[in-house]
């Protein structure tokens, strides 16, 4: 075969090897550069946040573990005044990103969403929180009783609608609540920390993470607390420890 005929084949082989190196070195980032991610980024920079959000969702569907997509989705939700959805995406990045700078930015965004939601609810929070503190639960006889009934441990779980750990913890909390062991010693309550009527109570107990469980005596004084999920045995152990701390 003539030497001139071998040159195109040699060039093609070298080019193919080079492209394989690029794909291995940069992974899906190279694909994103010419795909929905690039268009979404352009839309975001043009302040077309709804279009950008759709683009980042499409890019995220291709690579669900890419934290940049989730971070930009959070920003889009924030600019579209959808605070809970923005917080959800910020929480994802803060939990799963391996980039310290991106993780820190997500934590800042999450804090901003918390302050925004608190400020939005501030006009109604004071009166509603008072109602929450005095809201009654029924005793076994059917008569109203204070959430902080005398001699009983109050077990309050603060959660949010967007918190994935809260959803996992919910059936665990419910199963312990129905445990007859605590029917005469504990009162259980689950509160959405982002509900305007619960904001002041969440602030009073300095709720910073979800879920957080507060164990309080009849005067509302905290005797124990924990943040994060646990299993039923762990929650029962915490309740038993808290009961020992109640004043006699």
Briefly summarize what is shown.
This protein has 10 helices and 6 strands, in the order αααααααβββαβαββα. With 248 residues, it is α+β, with helices and mostly antiparallel strands.
Would you list the SSEs in sequence order as H and E? Answer: HHHHHHHEEEHEHEEH
CATH fold description of the largest domain: Glutaredoxin
Helix/strand/pairing category: alpha+beta
CATH class of the largest domain: Alpha Beta
Number of strands: 6
- Count of helical regions: 10
The CATH superfamily title of the largest domain: Glutaredoxin
Percentage of residues assigned to helices: 55-70%
Ends: how far apart?
100 Å
What percent strand?
5-15%
What does this structure look like?
This protein has 248 residues and is α+β, with helices and mostly antiparallel strands. It has 2 domains: 9-115, Tetratricopeptide repeat domain (Serine Threonine Protein Phosphatase 5, Tetratricopeptide repeat), CATH 1.25.40.10; 135-244, Glutaredoxin. Helices cover 60% and strands 12% of the residues. It is built from 10 helices and 6 strands, in the order αααααααβββαβαββα. It has helices spanning 3-26, 28-33, 36-45, 49-62, 67-79, 83-96, 100-134, 164-177, 199-204, 232-244, and strands at 137-138, 144-145, 153-159, 186-192, 212-216, 222-227. The strands form 2 sheets. The chain has a 4-stranded mixed β-sheet with strand order 4-3-5-6, with helices on one face. It has a two-stranded antiparallel sheet with strand order 1-2. Strand 5 and strand 6 form a beta hairpin. Helix 3 packs antiparallel against helix 4. It is elongated, with a radius of gyration of 26 Å. It starts with a helix and ends with a helix.
């Amino acid at each position: 075969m003539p030497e001139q005929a071998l040159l195109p084949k040699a060039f093609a082989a070298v080019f193919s090897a080079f492209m394989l190196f690029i794909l291995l070195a940069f992974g899906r980032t190279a694909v994103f550069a010419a795909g929905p991610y690039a268009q979404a980024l352009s839309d975001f920079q043009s302040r077309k946040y709804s279009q950008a959000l759709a683009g980042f969702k499409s890019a995220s569907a291709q690579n669900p573990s890419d934290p940049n997509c989730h971070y930009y989705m959070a920003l889009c939700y924030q600019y579209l005044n959808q605070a809970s959805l923005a917080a959800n995406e910020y929480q994802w990045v803060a939990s799963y990103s391996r980039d310290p700078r991106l993780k820190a930015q997500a934590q800042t965004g999450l804090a901003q969403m918390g302050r925004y939601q608190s400020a939005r609810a501030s006009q109604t929070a004071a009166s509603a929180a008072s109602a929450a503190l005095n809201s009654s639960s029924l005793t076994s006889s059917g008569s109203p009783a204070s959430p902080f009934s005398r001699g009983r441990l109050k077990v309050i779980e603060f959660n949010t609608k967007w918190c994935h750990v809260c959803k996992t913890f919910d059936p665990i909390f419910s199963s312990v609540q129905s445990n007859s062991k605590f029917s005469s010693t504990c009162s259980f309550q689950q509160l959405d920390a982002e509900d305007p009527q619960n904001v002041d109570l969440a602030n009073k107990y300095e709720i910073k993470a979800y879920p957080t469980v507060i164990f309080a005596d009849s005067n509302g004084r905290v005797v124990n607390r924990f943040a994060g999920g646990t299993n039923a045995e762990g929650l029962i152990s915490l309740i038993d420890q808290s009961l020992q701390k109640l004043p006699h």
